[in-house]
TrEMBL record:
It comes from Shimia marina. This is 5-formyltetrahydrofolate cyclo-ligase. Keywords: ATP-binding, Ligase, Magnesium, Metal-binding, Nucleotide-binding. InterPro entries: FTHF_cligase (IPR002698), FTHF_cligase-like_sf (IPR024185), NagB/RpiA_transferase-like (IPR037171). Gene3D superfamilies: NagB/RpiA/CoA transferase-like. It is an enzyme of class 6 (ligase). PANTHER family: 5-FORMYLTETRAHYDROFOLATE CYCLO-LIGASE, ATPASE INHIBITOR/5-FORMYLTETRAHYDROFOLATE CYCLO-LIGASE. GO terms for molecular function: 5-formyltetrahydrofolate cyclo-ligase activity; ATP binding; metal ion binding. Pfam families: 5-FTHF_cyc-lig. Belongs to the 5-formyltetrahydrofolate cyclo-ligase family. The lineage of its organism: Bacteria, Pseudomonadati, Pseudomonadota, Alphaproteobacteria, Rhodobacterales.
Amino acid sequence: MDLIEQKAAARKAAFARRKEAFANAGPGQSAHLSEVLAGYRGVPLAGYMPIRTEISPLAAMAEAAAHGPVGVPVIQAEATPLEFSRWEPDGALKAGPFGAQVPVVDDYFDPEIVIVPLVGFDLNGGRLGYGGGFYDRTLERLRARRATLAIGFAFDAQEAAGLPLEATDQPLNMIITESRVIEFSRP
């Protein structure tokens, strides 16, 4: 099986685990995320508008927005880095690509912290996304400009050993789940 087939199989298994975790999830999923972000008050950050069965960072994003800029990703074109537009908890939104909501008014900025959605993760900071490479390109671009903290946010059930990763896959600095915070030392 080649790498593309390995990634497709890993995604299929991870989606199934995430779907089950989502169905069984209770309140307070973002408590650990809120605790971590409290240590970075005022630092520009980006979260995401959850789609399908993604764990929701919205409560933690709303708390952070009271202290500094919070953005959400806006896809510009296929195979390009994401841009992040300023988001407010009660701000006007419109439908964006892939069903995610985006702010009606574009107000782009570069975050220093990026909360990254994912399909699967490993305990080395590896992340399996949807396959478009948007976050890998984005993190590579942001990290070329300055230190950027990439926080994977997921259900515990999305953990997998031996993810099929490539050299272009950007590592996470931290993974936060509904039950724990896992940090990785990165240069």
